Amino acid sequence: MRLSATVRRTGLRAILPRWYQALPAWCWWLFFFVTPITWVAMASLGMKPIDPSRGAVVFDQLSLANYDAATGNVFFAVFLITIKTAGLGTLICFLVGFPVAYALATKVPVRWRTPLVFLLLLPYWTSFLLRTFAWRIILAPQGELSDLLRSIGLMSTPLMILDSNTAVQLGIVYNYLPIVILPIYVALDRIDPAFKQASMDLGAGRLGTFLQVTLPLAVPGIVGGVLLTFILAAGDYVVPAILGGAKGLMVGNLVALQVLASQNLPIGAAMAMVLIGLLAVVVTVVGTAAFGLRSIVRLVRGPAL
Amino acid sequence: MPGQHHDPVRLLLLTWMVLVFCFLFIPILVVVLYSFNGGRNLYVWTEFSVRWYGRAIDNPRVVSALFVSLEAALINALIAVSLGVPAGIALARRKGRWTLPFLALIFVILGTPELVSAIGQLIWFDRLGLYNGLLRLAIGHSLFNIAVVTLIVRARAEGLGEALEEAGADLGGRPLRVFLRITLPVMFPAVLAGGLLAFTFSFDDVIISLFVQRPGMTPLPVYILSSFKSVLRGDVAAIVVLTLLVSLVGILTAAALLMKGRAKTRTLQAGP
Question: Taking burial as the number of CB atoms within 10 A of a residue's CB, which of A46, B26, B57, B109 is the most buried?
Fold first, then answer.
């Protein structure tokens, strides 16, 4: 019995790599993730068939014509708005979120940190739809906030923020705030207090220690958080669909319109490729690949896990 | 540090933190509160009532969408666990040249806009002739969630080491038996937590579902999104609050398991 088991194991080991336990996931991802992404790139070079029975995309001749259509005037305007909304949203998230991460990592008693970080992630991990719908109730022209602002004389007309780019901007900041805070918190939390003590002992003031010791050590977390927020915000579909109306469209909505509503999948695929291209450029420019990788892996593992 | 409690910077930072936490939670509480608003117009508070909940539960389309979501989330969680658990263990224990490309792929999967992978899956499933609505949803959601389970299990496996399994093998246990009787029970908190997170993420997913769904197999979030037409109805508010409850149960259980697992890891490491 023992012998045959040993023989079988050696037989298998000869074929399978040492890390065979990761092989199923690797194959699954190649088949259901890498292949589909490759198809997006290919579909962007194909064309929509005149005969609908031939499917959503055909490759009678490959061309870049879809990219012409995908970068036309309307798309380009929406594309600029998307970059602006995601960029400004990321900046606001960082400015609002950094002090929170700093307070969590340095000013809160240790035993409170993990529960508070969990509390921070709780809104992000539960219904995205609910959190976005919430702003339709809060910002409604006939709602309580609108009445309150008018009764204290801050405004003379009902609140008219909904169905505009402003509402989308607010929704983006609200939804992605935890995503920028978490990696910065993790980076700050890992800083050895001895570094700060040494800096103080050597005569640097509090501000000097913060600027010359704490901040540089937190850079990996800052880069990771900012990049991830920008990527998620630029590819968002739900927030503009619910809060933006006709005036607050983003790239995600145009892509969905092409692929799902007006059924020109190749043009939608080309738009998606332009979006990925932009994100790839941003990621490469803002941080080196290794830098971003480390932060994001760290982000996903998280302190609570 | 003496006098730390009177430090104005500390006070300012903590106040800001509390304000941001309020900003994060107040909108959620507003929806929960207004879902109990009995008035015809959801935005104007009139009276407390549960009538929207009654209407939501009576709607057969809501109930069928709920079941589609639950089934898809369950299949997705099973896929995520059965592929993610071994992958996480391998990442922690069989490090080598394969680790970096594997982690890079995980990073790409977590960082790719959902929109792009959703289009790809729509095309690929149609090419494959995979028209089973449940499987399309479950597979579509599983790609991200396998990565989540892998990372959670890796974190736990790295904390534990291999001593218990080695002891099991020395005592004559076969690899499969050692895996089932030792590895899996020790990993159980992480496995269950990963599965619950995978379930919750799938249950809440909008974008992948919107693209890969088939007629007659609409999951709940897509139904909610499509029934929203510039005015938010009371019954839609009630449904989103119900989905919040499902997610909360999943997330809180996962968190409790992970905390317990961490405590147990510490005792195991501190052992003789």
Answer: A46
**ipTM of predicted assembly, 2 dp:** 0.88
Nearest CA in chain A to B5: A107
CATH code of the region B59-270: 1.10.3720.10
Which pLDDT band holds residue B2 (cuts at 50, 70, 90)? very low
Q: Are A232 and A122 in contact (CB under 8 A)?
A: no
pLDDT of residue A299: 52
Contact between A85 and A217 under an 8 Å Cβ cutoff? The reply is no
A100–B34: do the CB atoms touch at under 8 Å? no
Q: Where are the domains positioned within chain B?
A: 59-270
Mean pLDDT, all residues of chain A: 85
- For chain B, the average pLDDT equals 89
Domains of chain A, each with CATH number or no CATH: 66-301 (1.10.3720.10)
**With a CB-CB cutoff of 8 Å, which residues 203-242 of chain A face chain B?**
206, 228, 231-232, 234-235, 237-238, 241-242
